[in-house]
Amino acid sequence: MHEWTGSLKKGKNSIPFVVKTEKNGRMEILTSAEYSNYSHKHKIVLDAQKNETKVSMFVFAPSPLN
């Protein structure tokens, strides 16, 4: 788990990070951002093979926190 805190601006914000894997296979990174009563989630899928890594990102609409 990695936690980032900081200020965000209105619109799109990028929070770069580096992931290193020492094994082949499919891995998922689940992200969540919370503000006030809302949560915004992403799922990043890494498919690591011998000489390349494919990255897919799925974005979910903001939703109220329960």
What does this structure look like?
The protein is an all-beta fold and 66 residues long. It has a domain at 25-64. It has strands at 25-35, 38-48, 53-59, 63-64. Strands 1, 2, 3 and 4 form a 4-stranded antiparallel sheet that branches.
Mean pLDDT: 80
| Cα end-to-end separation | 22 Å
Percentage of residues in strands = over 45%
Global outline: elongated
What string, H for helix and E for strand, traces the elements in order?
Answer: EEEE
Structural class: mainly beta
Tell how many strands the DSSP assignment holds: 4
Given as residue ranges, the uncertain stretches (5+ residues, pLDDT < 50) are none
Q: Which radius of gyration do the C-alpha atoms yield?
A: 14 Å
Number of separate helices: 0
DSSP helix fraction: under 10%
Q: How many strands, what sense, and barrel or not for the largest sheet? A: 4 strands, antiparallel
Write a brief structural summary:
The chain is mostly beta strands. Helix content is 0%, strand content 47%. Strands 1, 2, 3 and 4 form a 4-stranded antiparallel sheet that branches.
Keywords summarizing the entry:
single chain, 66 residues, mainly beta, four-stranded antiparallel β-sheet, 0% helix, elongated
Q: Topology, pairings included?
A:
Layout lengths: L24 E11 L2 E11 L4 E7 L3 E2 L2
Antiparallel strand pairs: 1-2, 2-3, 2-4
